[in-house]
Each structure stands twice: as structure tokens, then as C-alpha cells.
Sequence to fold (421 residues):
Amino acid sequence: MQKDTIALHAGYDKTQGFGTMSVPIYQTTAYAFKSGEHAADLFALRDFGPIYTRLNNPTTDIFEQRFAAMEGGVAAVATSSGMSAIFDSIINVAEAGDNIIISDKLYGGTVTLCTHTLKRFGIKAKIFSSDDAKDLEGMIDEKTKLILFESLSNPQISIPDIEKIVEIAKKHNVLTICDNTVASAALFNPIKWGVDVVVHSTSKYTTGQGTALGGIIVEREGLNELISGNPRYYHFNEPDESYHGLVYSTTGLPPFTLRVRLALVRDIGTAPSPFNSWLLLQGLETLSIRMKRHSKNALEVAKFLNSHPKVKKVSYPGLENDEGCKKAQKYFKDGLCSGLMSFKVEDYETAKKVLNSTKIFSIVVNIGDSKSIITHPASTTHQQLSNDELKSAGISPELIRLSIGLEDPKDLIEDLKQALS
Ligand code: PLP
Fold:
């Protein structure tokens, strides 16, 4: 099935229930079991079905199946936010004494999670340069549990050398995790390039109109080959005392997402609300069509900014003079580059003036909305980063980020023209 069809149909069987065209919202916390034996079978994984909405829910289940199909994965677990998807994915494999290798170009919240919060859990984050991954191999040791990067980074709009990262990871049997939020499942599928696990903040392009917070973790088919018998992932190969001695690598089920659900979502409670899963399903239905329009609008705006005398530098890989242009053509569907871009003006004062002068763009710390957004990363989304961290991430005070919406691009260009005047 083609992606546009998957987005509308996968995971939902209309012959069940009342045959509703729209997926029903199962707004419930719990489920009545048919008998005591039925309940026991579900808990022992002898039978499959809803147990309690913190573990699974029929509406969320359809969203997970549909999203996994969109990403070309085999299984998915939805979470309450993008951050919880990233947190669950990391602690699914890493524990005190371990290290993780993260890209130098990541969303600020992810940097803070990895370098500060996880440090208090005894997990060390090493930072590699993802544009060329030249320093990556030398950082891997026996305690390295994963390599994390974004397919299109927020806010630098940079594309890593994904092929090289995957090649190095495979050589050392280390798991790769790609945050595909900005590119979206419509424009890029990391699994097709050999990535093991894909995470998203579905709060962005997936929901599309800024209506629901969410996250998702998708696992590739055959990941057990990497995990089974691999000493790095010994806890997938030994009995889990907290789940009747279950050995995740021997269940025949996708082990990564199985453990996220059974051990982490169970204990930490990062489950989404069924209503949000339903809103995200509505978003998925139009994702592909919206991504084409976001990308087309963004390219027009980027071209305008690129030729404006007061703009120092525009980062948008759709532009022929952008460093990421070749990679965008190689990786992304039809070379479409999503709706996010950043540009630099003279100084912080000018950036503030532009921010305060736009009329259609709203000053918001979100991306992927149908309405256009303007953000100053250094003072907001990346404020928790130290000056050194900001510098190495390429986030300067004169940097402005735009999330281009679905308005008529002529109006967006007019708005920026008057704000820059
Ligand atoms: N990943 C990326 C690339 C993001 O841009 C964001 C949020 O901006 C997140 C993850 C975190 O997602 P959420 O806000 O849904 O927790």
C-alpha cells in the first residue's frame, strides 16, 4: 500500500463494531474482562487485548499501527509527548554507568534531558558532530547503548550523514535512534536507511493544527537480530524479574517496543490520552498533503529571505546554496524539506524587532502548526543551554526560526518584508 492510502486506512477494520468511518474514541481507563482466566491470560501475554489504558487502548492501538505502517516499521508505542518518547527510548537500553552518543544538533529539550537529567541517572551523553559523523566511531565503547540524532534538526535545519552513522553503528552493533519529527513520516522514513528506532514528537506535523501533545516510538522489523545475544543489551536477554521472568528477546515479538510498553510505560505512566490518539489519527489522514504544502510555502519564503539585504544567512535545505541541499535530494521524498527554516539578522536587537513586528506569524514555541510561527531559539526553546552549548549547536542571539504554515506564501512574504523594513 502507498503511504497516502496507509495514512487513511491502516490499522482500522471498519467491519468491526458499528462500521463507523471515523475511528471510535475509546475514552476509558479500564476494560471488563470476560472472566478471571481471561484477565490472567492477558497479563501473562497468552492472549492479547486491552488491559488498562496506561498499557494499551483500542484507539491508541490503531494510531500506533497506522504510524508504524507510515514509518515502514513493525510496531509502535505512543506516548504522552515527544519528550517521553525520547526518555523511554533511552532508558529502555541505558542504565547507570552507560553512555549514549548524541548529535551536536538536537532540539534543546533533548539536549537538556541527555546532558543534565540523565546525568543524574548515571548516564553520560557524549556529543558527536552529526553533519559528517567523523568523530563518531572513536566515541563508541562497550558501555555505549545508542546513537541519537534528528533527521532534520531543530532549529539548525541540518541533515546528518545518516548513511555513515548507520554504517558505523552496525559495525559496532549499537542501536540507532532517529528523531524524525521535523521531516515527518510523510517525507522521510529513517528505517528504510537502516535506522533501528524512530521517535517523533507527534505534537508537531502529525497533529498538524497544534491540537494535541503526543509522541511515538517505532521499531524496525528484525531488530531482535541486533539485540539477541548482544552483551550491550543483556537485560533483553535475561529474565525480567518484574514480568514473571520474561526474556524479551525470546518472545517472538518486537522486543524494543514490547519492553517500552511492559516495563516503562507500565512503571512511568507515559501513556497518551485516547482523545489525543484520536486527534493524532485525524492529523495523520492529511499529513502527506500538508507536508507538500508546508514544503512548497517554505521554499518560497526561504528564497525571499535569501535575497533580502538585511538577512545574513538562511538555513533551508531546499535552497540550492544550502549545505544540506544534496542530502535533502538524497533522503527526502521529492527533495521536499518540510516547513522549518532559520535565518540570521544583524544582531539580537534586529531579531527582537523582527519578532515583534510580524502580524501573521505568531511568537510561539512550537513548530508544525498550520499557522505560521516565529521563534527566537536562544531566549526560549534553547534557553537552558549554556553559552558554550549554544555556540556548538550553532544557535546565536541573531538567529530566528520560522515554522511556515499553510497560509498563502505571498502574505507570509509581505509580512516578513514589512517586519524587516
Ligand atoms: N523532538 C523535536 C525535534 C522537537 O522539536 C520537540 C519539541 O519541540 C520534541 C522532540 C519534544 O516534543 P514534545 O514537545 O511533544 O514533548
About this structure: The first strand starts at residue 75 and ends at 79. The chain has two domains: 3-282, 289-420. Residues 81-83, 107, 109-110, 150, 154, 179, 181-182, 201, 203, 213, 215, 367 surround pyridoxal-5'-phosphate (CB under 6 Å).
